[in-house]
Amino acid sequence: MDLPADPRARRLFGGSARALGDLAGSPFRADRDRIVASPFFARLGGVTQVVSPGGSGLLVHNRLTHSLKVAQVARAIAERLTADTRWRDLLEKLGGCDPDVVEAAALAHDLGHPPFGHLGERVLDRLARQRLGLADGFEGNAQSYRIVTSTEIRGAATTGLDLTAAVRAAMLKYPWTRLDHPDPHPRHLDPPPRGAAAPPDDPDSGSAKFGAYRTELTDLRQAREPFAGRIADWQQTVEASVMDTADDIAYAIHDVEDFYRVGVLQQGAVAAELMAWQRENGHFRAVTEPALAGVARRPGAAIERLRRQLHRKDGWIADDEAFAAAVEHVRQELVEGLLAVPFDGSIEAEQYVARFSARWTTRFVDAITVTDAPSVRSGHVLLAPAQWHEVQVLKFVHHRFVLARPDLALHQRGQARLLGALVEALWEWLLDPEEESRLPRRLHDLVELAEAELHPRTPDRIGRARGRAIVDFVAQLTDGQAVAMLDALSGRSGALWTDAFVL
Question: From the CB of residue 159, how many other CB atoms can be counted at a distance below 10 Å?
């Protein structure tokens, strides 16, 4: 078969294109189908978005439904941009914007998210670095990239999903490793790109967010090779920028939907916060940082902290007039609109939620622009300033009135302890010489894979391979499988057969 004309479609290992005998048409559509057919995609239906799928008592988004919505929004953005003659030459100059590439990357972007959502990501990172001695730790985006390039099996070889260069590059929201690629590392830029800075409490740990572990660095370089000279080494491709923007849009909208349905978002509390700031924003702006911290629970103080944070981190776009307009628009749509009538599960209520979601999605997709000289903190594809501020305010509502709740914190602390106990139990099992033949086959295979990736002279090579295998194994479980496996390992489960070893 001839090589695809688009160099981004080539698997750059050896310069040969992958076989497409199973599906005619675009290689990028074949990528999409491979991702959807993967068991790693199916498992996302049992992985937390914000709260565990079975923990709310009502239907809320999980990682699967989130990924589907991100793909839908991302494709809408890509189709709009490619149909607009204003952007045609610029998009071509930057490397292209194919709707199939964008959709495939959006479907794959969360494959590596572990049980229990972002909490699980933080816990696994801490355990990987501090308990298992892995310098790269754990990062959900890097784990997604590892799955599609290394740990998923197709045919006789462990080559991941064998995706095209364009789709792999489009998955890279953060096209750098934790510590040393590219050189100079983007965390040393002033300001650093979004996600590249080290955590304030651990400045020597490298970037907080990154797109690949060192074991996948060669693949990252090859995926990005067709874009050399078009974009900076640390900059997203246009297609990655579209996917990232779509992720932000979907997250901002559907989390508000979820917690309205569940009854967590209450009109009175949201109204008090937004309207207090609107009445007294002149007073709040004059308050010093220490004084503002002293009135943290006063209505209006939290959103004033958001306004200041946006100026500190994103001064390239933060604007007080746009921020005030965004607060007002969210107040009208949310306080006087969606939250004005409690959700009762009726057809009318569902239709109202659907209209709310569609209205916001259309507003955001229509506000997408392209620039050839983005801020270091932005991609080439971005929202217009008014809508960018609206996304920040919607996300604030979710953080302030959902993530900060003590009852959610109580639930998450239990999940964190569960993951810690599961990692410890698996480590002890791997160290038991009498149990080697009875290890879960998947875990055994992952140890062999991790060992093969390490240089023969790597200090404590076996120990590090076991640590990475445990992280890979736990990250591939659903929430329910993680709970069931710990129950079995701790002797609490009365069931002999469990689905915990499926992946």
Answer: 18
- CA separation for the pair 170, 355 (Å, rounded): 30
d(CA 320, CA 174): 29
- CA 67, 169, 235 angle in degrees (round to 5)? 105
In CATH terms, the fold of domain 7-238 is Hypothetical protein af1432 (1.10.3210)
A 10 A CB-CB count for 442 gives: 16
Distance CA 208, CA 49 (A): 20
Helices 406-431/117-126 angle, 10° precision: 40
Read off the pLDDT of residues 98-118 as tens digits, 9 standing for 90 and up.
Answer: 999 999 999 999 999 999 988
> How would you class 207 by CB atoms within 10 Å of its CB: exposed for 0-12, middle for 13-18, buried for 19 or more?
buried
Comparing CA positions, the residue from 149, 71, 144 lying closest to residue 106 is 71
Q: Where does the chain hold its CATH 1.10.3210.10 domain(s)?
A: 7-238
Reduced to 3 states (helix: H, G, I; strand: E, B; else coil), residue 48 is: strand
Rg from Cα positions in the chain: 23
The yes-or-no verdict on residue 3 having pLDDT over 50 is no
Query: What is the spatial distance between Cα 184 and Cα 466, in angstroms, rounded to a whole number?
Result: 31
Q: H or E element: which one contains 254?
A: helix 238-262
Element (H, E) at 165: helix 165-170
- Pair 270, 334: CB distance under 8 Å: yes
Residue 147: half-sphere exposure toward Cβ, Cα within 13 Å? 29
308, burial (CB in 10 Å: exposed 0-12, middle 13-18, buried 19+):
middle
CB 160 within 8 A of CB 150: yes
* C-alpha–C-alpha distance, residues 83 and 184, integer Å: 37
Q: What SS3 class is residue 137?
A: coil
Element housing 368 (H / E): strand 368-370
Cα angle 229-230-236, degrees, rounded to a multiple of 5: 115
Q: What is the pLDDT of residue 265?
A: 87
Q: Which DSSP string corresponds to 399-421?
A: IIIIIT-HHHHHHHHHHHHHHHH
To 5 degrees, how large is the angle CA 423–CA 428–CA 433?
140
DSSP secondary structure string for all residues of 195-229: TTSPPTT-TTS--SS-S--GGGHHHHHHHHGGGBT
- Tens digit of pLDDT for each residue in 263-280? 888 899 999 999 999 999
Number of H helices, E strands in the chain: 20, 2
